[in-house]
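Researcher: Re-running this chain for the archive, since the previous output was lost when a drive failed. Same request as before.
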Amino acid sequence: MAGPGKYGGFDPPPDEAVPEPAPGVVDLADRNLAEFPAVTKALRAAVEINLEGNELVSVPTGALSRLTRLETLRLTGCALTHLPDDLGRCESIARLFAGANRITDASPAFELPCAVHVGLSHNRVGALPPPEVTARAEALVSLDLTHNDLCVADDALASLAAMPSLRALSLAGNPMAMAPGFSRAVADTMPELLMLDGVRLERQPPGPGHPEDDGTAVPATVTIKFKVTNASCEPDPDPPIDDLGTKKPEKGSGEEDVGEKGSPDGGEEDGEKVEGDGGEGGEGEPEPEPEPEPEPEPEPEPEAADGSEFFVRFSVAPASGDASDVADVFAIPRRRRTPPEPEGGKSGEGGGEGDGEGDGEGEGDEGDEGGEGGEGGEGGEGGAVAVEEDPDDPDTTFYADLPLTVATRDLLHRGVTFEMCKVEMVPRVDDSPREPREDVEPGAGVDADDGGEAEGADGAEGAEGAEGRSDLVERVTVVGVAVVRLGSLLSGANEWSGDVEFARIAPMYRSAAVGEVLVALGGDGSGAGERAGRATVTCVMHATRPVVEGDGGGEEGEETAAEE
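Model: Regenerated structure tokens:
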């Protein structure tokens, strides 16, 4: 403890020593540097230079070759578009970290004569230099190329196999790494490699499906299975307040007006008038009128059944590029948004009154006879009811053959968009102009004798037009959207499954005093951002398509497969 101070008491404890960088380490990280620092005496003596998180676009040629003691160079998280061309003269650099940049050409990194590790993850490298260039990296033991744009596996593996000392390799996140059997192809091409994506390679003897068995290369496509089950759609939100200036009439206003004029509540006024007019009736008292019978209470009108349908659709078109065979839209079959309510089975009454002889099949339509009809009635009250489905149902399972491209990798990383669509029947709107009659010249009148016939003809045409305009047509509205991110499939996982909630983003059509209008969703209680529905989505990487019956049986089998 420190002794008494000048003014009594004790001196404060000394400040904790601030750790100083190790000798030979120059830390210039996160300094917003736009240019490489000037070569000073400190840099010349540096063993490690840290320039991470700066805004460097390039490193000037000749700057690194003057640093004869530099062993570790960190350039992660800058804005580099290319590496310096004089790395081949940097004989002291053993570790280079240049990830999370915009580098497209990795050739200079393989010219480091003494480099042991090179990290170029999260860049834009689309192809590796030829084997005669990568063979110069004789001392390179570890190479990190994760999350780049390598698509052609055969060319990339040929360049990687030319490095004699490479033992640890990371390629996850590249489009070519999504190919089935990719790790096995890497192990066969590079027999000296020990680690791939942080996992020790286990080599297996050749067997069925081995690339060496039939001499085929790594496939250029990947098959992904999408499965959508247990889908349900929520009812429409309540319409917001009408902003058109029209107010709904208050409840009971019409009844009050009627009561003042002649309802039972206004009987006193009528009685006073009769009493004042009395004459022949003796004392002038009116004869007693029979009391009116109370009107029966009107039965509540049943709520209109929701006859709209819904379905879920998605598309992998962003990964298709110019390939039209994968640009199709996949959709599950339509289904009723609210299951039909069984007759006599509301709130489970049908199950209690039945004699138990019904078989209960269907959706609760036989609630008066079967014991399970009441359960169907309870289901009718809920808005969104999920339908249990067969997990192998071909109507809800889809297979997509996606090319091993950057677009496919980005689609899985950013997410596949699923849309929930509502289908409802609305009156047809005929906005087409009316075609003139061929037998009547433009501007010519109609004779009086033919007036009746003309009128009849026009009337018939008008009736036909009205009948045509009254037809109902389907209207499809996207009521909810969900984005399913599948980045885990790029990191080694083969399956993703989870419950997906659809956020309500679309406007809703509502009836108003002026007709049917389009009400925008907003912060006025119209349901913006609320849940529009949900579904269970499962995605399986490297899936195998089911064998179609009759496939392989000549032309008929090919036609069957094409139809499927």
